[in-house]
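Quarterly update from the structural biology core.
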Amino acid sequence: MVSATSELLPLADGCLILSHRLSEWMSNAPTMEEDIALGNIALDLLGQARGLLQVIGDETGVTEDELAYFREPQEFRNPLICELPNGDFAFTMARQLFVDIWLAHVWSELAATASDEQVRGVAEKAIKENAYHRRHSSSWVVRLGDGTDESRRRMETATEALWPYRGEIADDRWYDAVDAALTEATLTMPPRDAWTQRSSLDGWHTEHLGYLLAEMQSLARAHPGATW
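Predicted structure, tokenized:
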């Protein structure tokens, strides 16, 4: 399993970081139902991250907690789109849809091809969870895109702001699925060949990840080795 870390780390880190971002909506979402929905999606993503980090930890000789709480920002390999601040609700839903479409393809491929039984199990469970996540995010993108003038403006702004960060998750299947979702929302997909940000594969991140990790890792670093 020599390549497990390099292959799984971007996926594991993406789920972990996006889980934390979504958790920031708790008590701040537009409705109580969305508080619960976003919290549940965040927990699903956290469970997916844990499953993969356990496999990576077994290979590298560290625990999942060490991987989550004691790496520096430049050691993370999550797609940059996952670490962006939540912005408004339209931004969060557009980002979630973009990531959900990416994950739908990734989990299906892992479930079909992974030689490791634990990885395959994580992927098979994640396929079902992601199907719900994608229904949720796509329904909101349609509702906001085809809603009021203000909700449409916000969704258009969100799509344009997120578009440069698609590079690590986009392929032809992704573009086709995003185009279909935006068309249903009466929105126009930006050009496929538009400029993209650089990737995190060499440890480069936006300035936002350091602040996110400072919050996420603070308790574990303040009390290393503590158990409950």
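Residues 93 and 140 are 7 Å apart (CA to CA).
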